[in-house]
Amino acid sequence: MSISSLDQTAAKPDYGAAYAELRRTVIAAGLLKRRYGYYLAYTSFCFALLSVGVALPFFFPASLGWSALASIVIGFAMVQIGLIGHDAGHLEIFRGTKKNWLLGQLCWSISTGVSFWYWNDRHNRHHGHTNEMDKDPDIQGGGPFAVAFTDEEAAARHGWRRALIKYQVVLVLLGLLLYTFAFRAEGWLYTMQKLKSTRRLLEITLLTLNIVLWLTFIIALGWRGFGIFFASNVVGSAYFVATIAPNHNGMPIWARDGKLSFLERQVLSSRDLTSHPVWDFLYGGLNYQIEHHLFPTIPRVNLKRAQAIIQPFCEAHGLSYEVTDPLTAYWQVYSELRRVGNAAIEI
């Protein structure tokens, strides 16, 4: 999608006052209240699921089928646990910041092997600069050798880098299978380069603990254990990307100097998926992306109720509220990446 900018000369509503009004409504509805019972049950379920996946190879025959099942269960559980860590990073779970951070480190650094502090820093920058060129790390993640999200970015490529853009859909699909491995590496780099003193030492300890746990698993099972480790991370990569791809890709990307209110930026650059209990479970609440971006501290179990308030509010204030089913959203993402890729050859 081309870089967008809103007409600054036309008279616009006071979106700052509008958001303040919306926030008062959300608070009055009790949607920011903690949901300890929900998170206790859900977190227990996810860690129990991970334990089942890890235990499967030790109790069932060393067949391809059982190994594949273990890989799927482990990969699925790791993403679900990561999504709990995502909520902790947004302070959705506990009132106290440190308690959220401790849970976040358990979910990310120890369980997935991805640095919690790396993830939290990257994700908070994404929320603060959603779909803003050169500032949103999810767009920067395309990098000079990978995805071009806009016609302008494609035009800036030269030589073989531009030629690769034509095939970026295929390259993205292949690359996304290794997403978690890249996150692990980037997390280690962030820990060594950005964190200081006690926090860095603790994070290194937790990340090392994840490596030790996996090495123990691999040593106990041999090459089968290594295969399950690799396959589970591939499953986790594919599942994780599937949860985040529809959220902002194919939505407006803002100019570097674009002046947008918080309400405009978060609503216009985000896409909701249709509400359904299955989607709520699989996407971990990220299918309510508009609500999550407007109120990042809302516990995910309250997001559906928030949608009933926020969608009519946006429509009443002239803000386009994008909501579609998952298959249509994936097709929109695919079509946009393909369009930019094809356009790069014609430039």
Helical region count?
17
The string of secondary-structure elements, in order, is EHHHHHHHHHHHHEHEHHHEH
Helix content: 55-70%
Main sheet record: 2 strands, parallel
Give the total of domains: 1
How far from one another are the termini? 15 Å
Number of strands: 4
Q: What structural category arises from helix and sheet content? A: mainly alpha
Strand order of the largest sheet: 1-2
User: Spans of 5+ residues with little confidence (pLDDT < 50)?
Assistant: none
Q: What oligomeric state is this?
A: single chain
Mean pLDDT across all amino acids? 89
**Proportion of strand residues:** under 5%
Using the alpha-carbon principal axes, give the shape.
globular
Query: Radius of gyration from the CA trace?
Result: 21 Å
